[in-house]
Amino acid sequence: METQNEVKNLLINRDNEIFKLYQQGQILQGYKVVSKLPKTFKTEYGNIPIKRRRYVKYNEKNKKYINCYPLDEELGLKKYERIEKNLKDKFISFMGDGKRYKDIMHTTENANISEKIISNIFKKADLEKVDYISNKNNNKIKIPNNVLYIQIDGAFVPMRENKKELKRKYFFQLCILVLMKKNQLKQEK
After folding, report:
1. What InterPro entries would the database entry show (predicted)?
2. What pLDDT is attached to residue 188?
3. Residue 91 host element (H or E)
């Protein structure tokens, strides 16, 4: 609860700093402060409701008003997004670990996020931009002039205890790697 209040105070202070810079004329020139609108941010510490300032500028070409929320832009949030970027990155870092959605939910219990939200974050993740896979040692195997055969087989095996079959079954996996040089293949034939 303390960290939630600390984060809320940090966001309010940052919104006030942006407003002071606006008053000094350093940023958002041509914009006017219209109102304070409420928005709830989802962070690791829970939902944080805050009122942030809305800046408006009239565009004469399109004859429309342009809304700007500088606090949202600093946090990296789009118009209707609520989940903080750091929290999204934390979820995406679990993507390559093979964890279930429930396991990921339990790592951030205070965030109040459902399995569906985690699923949507995974679907929208752009894996080409950033390497989200947890294997940070991207050691590539170089096999010049060699042949690599990989066979994988698996089976669900019922386990018995005192001649009674247990309800749970275990999955055994067998992986065989064979590495041979091409020259050896020719000699053996």
Report:
1. UPF0236
2. 47
3. helix 85-93
Query: What is residue 10's three-state secondary structure?
Result: helix
Alpha helix positions (H), 26-80: 70-75
> pTM for this one?
0.65
Residue environment code for 142-153, b if the CB has 16+ CB neighbours within 10 A, otherwise e: eeeeeeeeeeee
Q: Where are the domains of the chain?
A: 2-124, 146-188
- Give phi and psi for 187, each to the nearest 5: -70, -35
Three-state DSSP class for residue 21: helix
Q: What are the counts of helices (DSSP H) followed by strands (DSSP E) for the chain?
A: 6, 5
The amino acid that residue 47 corresponds to is N
Q: 159: left (phi > 0), else alpha (psi -120 to 50), else beta? A: beta
- pLDDT of 44-97, one tens digit each? 999 999 999 999 999 999 999 999 999 999 998 998 999 998 899 888 888 877
Q: What is the mean pLDDT of the chain?
A: 81
Q: Which residues contact 2 (CB under 8 A, 6 or more apart)?
A: none
Distance spanning both ends of the chain, measured CA to CA? 72
Quote the tokens at residue 60: 């004469």
